[in-house]
Amino acid sequence: MEDEKLIVTNTQDPLESPLDQLDDGEVAKPDPEEMLLLLTSPEPQQRMIAARAFCEIKDGRAIPSLIGLLKDSCPLVRVSVAYALGRNSNSQVVEALITQLHQDWNGYVRKGVVWALGNLWRSPSFRTPVRCPKNRYSRRASVGSEFPRSNGESEL
Q: Are 86 and 119 in contact (CB under 8 A)?
């Protein structure tokens, strides 16, 4: 009798996780108006939450605030902002991200900036020309131009 109760009550697969039974319904996106206000919060955690929200929300109104937050003292805010800017772009975003890449000391922030730049580059709406700083390696080659070899010879 007790064995029957165990069999009837224990119908769950022992390898099945309770997390598998959670509702896969759509999660509501954060309110953009509220998140815009949180971007200017004095609390770093609130700014980080708002920046992360703009990874899911595309809203051009957030871009100036997000660019300003690239200079935040908290690296968690800066990395969240980098990812958010990778999803929200305009003509100033690429320059701000490149500048941040050259100035930021934190490896996680730099990784987020590189991801954002790569994500923006793949975006079909990305058609902003990028101005690269000139240095001795910035010589452009055209098709059919010759590059001198180290011994003075040239090859196509």
A: yes
